[in-house]
Amino acid sequence: MTTARKIARHRPRHCLPLLLGLVAPLAGAQAQVRAAPEATPAEPAASADTRQTLGAVVVTAQRKPQKLQDVAAAVTALTAESMESLQVQSATDLSRLVPNVKFDAVTAGSTALKPFIRGGGVTDGGQITSESEVGIYVDDVYRARLSGALMEFVQLDRIEVLRGPQGVLYGRNSSAGALSIVTRAPTAATTGSFELGLGNNGQRHIKGHVSSAISEDKRWRGSLQGMVKRRDGNGQYNVTQRKDVGAEDTVGLQGDLAYEGPELQARLSVFTTRTDGDGQWAVPNTIAPDGTITPSTGSYRKVASPYDSLTDVRQSGATLRLQGRLGDVRLTSITGFVRMNDHWRQDFSGGVSAALIGGSASDTLALFERESHTRHHQFSQELQAAGELLDGRLSYVTGLYYFDESGSQDLASTIFFQPSQVRFNADTTSRAAFGQLSARLTPVTTLLVGGRYSQDRKQLDGALAAQPFDQSNRYGKFTPKVGIDHKLAPDTLAYVSYSQGFKAGGYNGLAATVAQISQAFLPQTTDAWELGLKSELLERRLRVNAALFHNKIKNRQQTLTVSNGPSAGSFVVENYNAKLTGLEVEAAWRLLPTLTLWANGAVNSGKYTGCATTVNVPCSVIDNALPLFPDHAFTVGFDHNTLAGPGALRFGADYSQRAAYYSTADNAPIGAVPRQKSLNAYVAYDVGAWTVQLAGKNLTQQEGWQTGFGFSVVQPRFAIPGRSVMLTARYQY
Which of 610, 554, 552, 556 lies closest to 580, judged by CA? Predict the structure, then answer.
């Protein structure tokens, strides 16, 4: 039976009872709960009552400080402490910790990101023309290019994941959700840390940071942090070249200067990173007459291409944040600049036996070679004004946003020995005005009304096989949000909201002809309804949050593979309508002062319902399942800590399972991903200023793939990461 048939057979018809039956008895803690700072047995000053409750965390998901449980939206937050034990080293680790989030490496170099939230995302993140449905923000600065987004986290304050359209308050209008990464600001007290790590596949790293006041009044502060990370491979072996592959080196440095005065707060951050490695490697597959698909090498841990892959990404940038007051109005300015050079190369065929095209069985061929050089820089400026009126009964946030991005990309491809070259010069300018008002109607009921007008201008010129193209388009859209929340009890919040997300039209950077490149695809709009409940029970020892959502997407920009004809191996973008519904639950239970159980889960249903009327568009995916939107997924875990000798012993584990899903909109068998399971665990010992931790991910060595596509004898899949084990020792003062 093919994987595609298995997916169809195992689609549950009644998802809601399934999830409720799962979460209710477990009452475990999810990442949102782990975000709260928790007392440990090594803190004798904490009372037993304090240690038995779930802590609170403050987030800025609505552009103002709020307790996470008071935010009337589906938000998950992780603090630095929870990220350490949950082994969050990159954005891909969030996939098991946040419901309806799937972040994978895109098929373009080893550092690019393919982020999906609630079935919305982008698959061509390696292209200069790409714009994601999921906004990535670092210290409130939007990162346009997903190349290099698989960053190694150094000193972070927290991560916030916002699910659903962010069409009002966030820089670029993100129609599926947003990932907000908040780095740690310099401190007045002198602090620092130094960490060494060793792991399998030759993994090793050194991290360090120092932070201190640099003036006598401690208003001026500075910090410096750095990282060197290396690995000898990623667990894959090239049977043709007879060597391990996946080696990678990363170096990063960030410096911060901050001023904390009574009337003005300022922070300047400057960073630079470099990742250099032998790239990403596709696994070749063979399709049997009965439709069975198997790796030609016998394993997804083995590749076969004779063509060397590579990844070389350099990034640098700066962020300046200024905040002050003009009377009762809080004014904020956020200025950001990022520059990137991205060079990658790989064989998308994975290495194909020459016998399949009439050659010698002893030869292995690279049938889909591609090399890319991208140069990119972006500048953004955001101005905010926030305050309260009528004795605090009204609060508001309003502002202006400007974004400009320019870049070029040179792509050289050789498909079945036929070379082609294309040069893109892309420029995007975005302007927006936004505002959101919260009105406290009663002491327990609040009305929220907001809106944003966005105007984007996109320009693309260049040449494909010496044939020039030059296109320019403007897109504008007002996106509203309205909601109401009500405190059913002091620790129980219910809310309902309607919001709209927008993604401007654009151009197909994977097209095979000038005509395809010159045909701009339509802008897409998402209408989203959400009903949520946030509750804390049993004297704040049990927390259960749930969100039920329904989205309608008009003119979704969908990339599809061309499987035959002269354009085989290229991609087209078509506009489709879609609808999706889902239920997400996050829960935590402080069962004992030393033991916390946690869980998260989601059940979903979604499909394409129609397509835009466009000449020569076959509308081939209507009624297909949405990619990267499984019927159900869940994670359960626990964390335990106890006094042991002179220090504290901590250990925990989590198990996640994701139902079968399609990674491509055509629902082709090569892109069908079967049910996946993962087991992760850690054990740590804290004594004085030292922490030693042994942690492992994918301990059962689950083997599989996260996506695939195909045409003719080219049938590649891209493997999921193998087992990773890391021993770290950290000194913190």
Answer: 552
Closest CA to 631 of 18, 142, 4: 18
pLDDT tens across 269-301, in order?
A: 999 999 999 999 999 999 999 999 999 999 999
> 3-class SS at 192?
strand
Block residue for tokens 């198997």:
294
User: Cα(395)–Cα(400) distance, rounded to whole angstroms?
Assistant: 18
Report strand pairing: 302-303 vs 236-238. Answer: parallel
Residue with tokens 């997916």: 7
- DSSP 3-state helix, strand, coil percentages of the chain (rounded to 5)? 10, 60, 35
Q: What is the C-alpha to C-alpha distance for residues 67 and 719, in angstroms, rounded to an integer?
A: 39
pLDDT at 565: 62
Measure CA 502 to chain center: 19
Q: Which of 281, 431, 471, 434 is nearest to 369 (CA)?
A: 281
3-class DSSP string for 610-675? EECCCCCCCCCCCCCECCCCCCEEEEEEEEEEEEECCEEEEEEEEEEEECCEECCCCCCHHHEECC
In angstroms, how far is CA 232 from the centroid of its own chain?
25
pLDDT of 394-428, one tens digit each?
999 999 999 999 999 999 999 999 999 999 999 99
Residue 46: pLDDT over 70: no
Question: Which among 572, 565, 469 has a CA at the least distance from the CA of 511?
Answer: 572
Measure the CA–CA gap between 96 and 400, rounded to whole angstroms.
Answer: 35
Cα 442 to Cα 447: distance, rounded to the nearest angstrom: 10
Question: Where do the DSSP E strands lie in 390-464?
Answer: 394-415, 418-442, 445-464
644, 645, 647, 650: CA torsion to nearest 10 = -20
Q: Is 1 helix (H, G, I), strand (E, B) or coil?
A: coil
**Residue (of 700, 498, 482, 679) closest to 87 by Cα position:** 679
Looking at residues 300-312, what average pLDDT do you find? Answer: 95
Answer yes or no: pTM beyond 0.70. yes
Listed in sequence order, the residues at least 6 apart from 108 whose beta carbon sits closer than 8 Å to its beta carbon are 124, 125, 126, 127, 147, 280, 344, 346, 372
Gap between the Cα atoms of 687 and 559, Å rounded: 52
Q: Please check the confidence at residue 44 and state whether its pLDDT lies above 80.
A: no
Q: Give all strands (DSSP E) within 514-594, no chain letters.
A: 524-537, 542-561, 571-592
User: Could you state, in order of their start, the residue ranges of all structural domains in the chain?
Assistant: 3-291+303-732
User: Shortest CA distance to 381 belongs to which of 318, 288, 445?
Assistant: 318
What are the C-alpha distances in Å from 664 to residues 104, 563, 571?
Answer: 13, 13, 12
Residue 625 CB coordination number (10 Å): 24
d(CA 394, CA 390): 6
- State the amino acid at position 260 in one-letter form: E
The rounded percent of the chain whose pLDDT value lies above 70 is 90
CA 292 to CA 285: how far, in whole Å?
10
Q: Report whether 555 contacts 606 (CB < 8 A).
A: no
Structural contact between residues 320 and 253, judged by C-beta atoms closer than 8 angstroms? no
Query: In what order do the strands lie in the sheet containing 134-138?
Result: 75-79, 156-163, 177-183, 134-138, 141-142
Give the percent of the chain with pLDDT over 90: 74
Whether 55 has a pLDDT exceeding 50, the answer reads yes
Report the pLDDT averaged over residues 549-556: 96
The predicted-structure confidence for 680-705, as pLDDT tens digits, reads as follows 999 999 999 999 999 999 999 999 99
Sign of CA dihedral 159, 200, 343, 366: negative
Q: In the CATH hierarchy, which fold is given to the domain comprising 3-291+303-732?
A: Maltoporin; Chain A (2.40.170)
d(CA 589, CA 38): 13
Is residue 118 within 8 A of residue 551, CB to CB? The reply is: yes
Whole-angstrom Cα distance, residue 151 to residue 157? 15
15 φ, ψ (degrees, to nearest 5): -80, -35
* β strands within 594-631, DSSP E: 595-611
Q: What is the pLDDT of residues 486-523, one digit of tens each?
A: 999 999 999 999 999 999 999 999 888 998 899 899 99
Q: How far is CA 596 from CA 27, 41, 43, 540, in A?
A: 10, 13, 17, 12
β-partners of residue 310 are 345
